Structure formats: structure tokens, C-alpha cells
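Fill in residues.
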């Protein structure tokens, strides 16, 4: 197992990509703190890991809140005995143009998608420094690398995720902390269905359009999870500041 004795925090760990990654990290031997706004769903993922013989705890938290992030880190350190891996993955999307977006919606998207990563890094980097290093993976998006329609706050937030990842890698590489972004294309999760609903589009038609890429299908959460496992593990020991695209060739 590639992550034996490692301890990981996964935010948005109850959702599609976060759940699959929590399971995949645990399958490689990591103890996992499953962090999510949805307490019951986080509990269920942690229970699923323990039933499979792994180690996991669930922590209900809003990643946009500094007190919540501090509590997530304190609880993980106390209950798991350390933190070597952080997957900053919680995210939300609002399918609106600049004209349609309220200031409150803009701030909430940036709170969950961007501020959360700043807060987690602000408080976890000293912990990782003291431990001699670590691996941080941030979930960007294809729309952090190119533009997309009717998603101004999301595109802006994911562009920020991709570039703050590079800045973090520069600042904390000397301490042995690697920071990378994983950038999925359309992945078969609740978020995609929610987008169809927000745009008042037929779900099947929306999903068919999502599959229109070189590999001719949407991604599965487990396929993003495997990329995250690789970035978390020593197999990627010389990789930092990168924006890894996992999108069936969509950006290409
Ligand atoms: N699904 C896709 O096609 C796709 C494509 C590109 C990028 N992404 C990104 O992948 C990440 C995961 O998306 P997903 O598709 O698994 O979505 P999802 O909606 O299935 O899961 C997201 C999870 O995050 C949790 N969450 C939301 N706000 C939170 C908050 N404030 N604090 C804590 N937890 C919170 C939700 O409860 C949910 O469990 C997101 O950052 C998303 O932007 C997804």
C-alpha cells in the first residue's frame, strides 16, 4: 500500500469526487478525516471506510469558516495523530453570468472554493513544516484553465485555485511541502446534475453534452481519485506546482 501510516484530510469528502478519494486514500492505507457540510453523509463515508477495514473519522464543518478549519485540523491531529495529506476539494458552482450573479452568491462561491484553501493552508502548513513535509492537492477544474459559459464566479474561483496552487508550491517547497491542483472535466457526480437543474436543462441532454470529448464519456469520481492518490503519494515526489488535467481530453 502506497500510503501506509499517512494521515489525510479530505474536504467535501461526502460528495462524488471527495467520497471516491476518501475511499481510495484509505484503500492505500491512509487514515482519513472525511470533512463535509453534510454531517450524515460524512458519517456514512467514514463508516464505509471502517467497515472495509480502514481508519476514518467524520468531521462536520463549513470550509469557508476559519474556526471550522482550525477545529478540523485540531480534531484530525488529536484523533489521527498527524496530517501528511490534505485534499482541498469542497466546491460549489453557480451557473450565472456576471449580470445575474448577486454579490452574496459571488462571495459564497469564493468562500467555499478559494478562501477555504487559503484558510486550510494558513493553518496546516506550520503542522506539515514541523513534520518535515506533506502533500496538498487542490481541486481546480477545466474551467480554471479555460473559460466557460454562465459560470462567472466559478470560472474566476477555479482560476484562482490553479494559480494559488503555484504560489503555495513556490512558498512552501523549501519545507518539503508539495502543492498541486487536480483539474477534472465533467465527472459523474451530484454537481453535474445540479448544473442541469440550475440551467433548467434536461438532465440526459446535459449529461450527453458533458460526454462530448475525445474519450466520448464523462469521468467517474474514482478516476479523479486515482490521480489524487498519485499526487498524495511519494510516486509523485518531484511534482509540485502542477495543474494535472483529468478530463478525457476535453481541454485538449
Ligand atoms: N463534477 C464535475 O464535473 C467537476 C468538474 C470539475 C471540477 N469539479 C470540482 O470537484 C470538486 C468536487 O465536486 P463534486 O462533483 O464531487 O461535487 P459534489 O457536489 O458531488 O460534492 C461536493 C461536496 O462538497 C460539500 N461541500 C459543499 N460546500 C461545502 C462547505 N462549505 N464546507 C464543506 N463541505 C462542503 C458538499 O456537501 C458535497 O458533499 C469541487 O471543487 C468541484 O468544483 C467537479
Amino acid at each position: 500500500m502506497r500510503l501506509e501510516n499517512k494521515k489525510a484530510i479530505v474536504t467535501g469528502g461526502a460528495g462524488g469526487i471527495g467520497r471516491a478519494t476518501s475511499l481510495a486514500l484509505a484503500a492505500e492505507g491512509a487514515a482519513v478525516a472525511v470533512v463535509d457540510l453534510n454531517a450524515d453523509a460524512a458519517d456514512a463515508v467514514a463508516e464505509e471506510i471502517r467497515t472495509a477495514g480502514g481508519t476514518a473519522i467524520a468531521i462536520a464543518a463549513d470550509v469557508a469558516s476559519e474556526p471550522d478549519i482550525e477545529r478540523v485540523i485540531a480534531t484530525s491531529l488529536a484523533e489521527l495523530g498527524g496530517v501528511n495529506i490534505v485534499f482541498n476539494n469542497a466546491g460549489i458552482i453557480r451557473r450565472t453570468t456576471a449580470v445575474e450573479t448577486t454579490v452574496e452568491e459571488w462571495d459564497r462561491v469564493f468562500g467555499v472554493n478559494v478562501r477555504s484553501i487559503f484558510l486550510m493552508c494558513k493553518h496546516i502548513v506550520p503542522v506539515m513544516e514541523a513534520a518535515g513535509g506533506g502533500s496538498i492537492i487542490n481541486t481546480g477544474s477545466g474551467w480554471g484553465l479555460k473559460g466557460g459559459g454562465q459560470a462567472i464566479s466559478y470560472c474566476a474561483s477555479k482560476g484562482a485555485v490553479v494559480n494559488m496552487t503555484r504560489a503555495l508550491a513556490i512558498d512552501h517547497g523549501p519545507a518539503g511541502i508539495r502543492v498541486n491542483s487536480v483539474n477534472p472535466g465533467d465527472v459523474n457526480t451530484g454537481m453535474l446534475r445540479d448544473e442541469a437543474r440550475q440551467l433548467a436543462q434536461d438532465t440526459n441532454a446535459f449529461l450527453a453534452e458533458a460526454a462530448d470529448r475525445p474519450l466520448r464519456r464523462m469521468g467517474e469520481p474514482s478516476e479523479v481519485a486515482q490521480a489524487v492518490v498519485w499526487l498524495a503519494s511519494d510516486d509523485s515526489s518531484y511534482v509540485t506546482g502542477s495543474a494535472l488535467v483529468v478530463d478525457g481530453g476535453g481541454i485538449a
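The chain has a mean pLDDT of 98.
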